[in-house]
TrEMBL record:
GO terms for molecular function: DNA-binding transcription factor activity; sequence-specific DNA binding. Keywords: Transcription, Transcription regulation. InterPro entries: Homeodomain-like_sf, HTH_AraC, PchR_regulatory_protein. It comes from plant metagenome. This is Transcriptional regulator AlcR in siderophore [Alcaligin] cluster. SUPFAM superfamilies: Homeodomain-like (SSF46689). Pfam families: HTH_18.
Amino acid sequence: MSSSTLRVKFQAAYHCSVFNWLRERRLEVAHQRLARGWSVQQAADFVGYRHATNFATAFRARYGVAPSQRG
């Protein structure tokens, strides 16, 4: 299957891009870890963010609060 075919089929099935779907899953996992008492840096590292600031920006955009305010 070509990458363009995969993109089209994924969009049809999930109503979002692969990138957006993956970002949502990563943020959901990070949210769960923060609720368990993990630090922002630990949660960011666990879900694959190299920089906590990029993670915090994505988290704030998704949940409306800074990750340090969750947990």
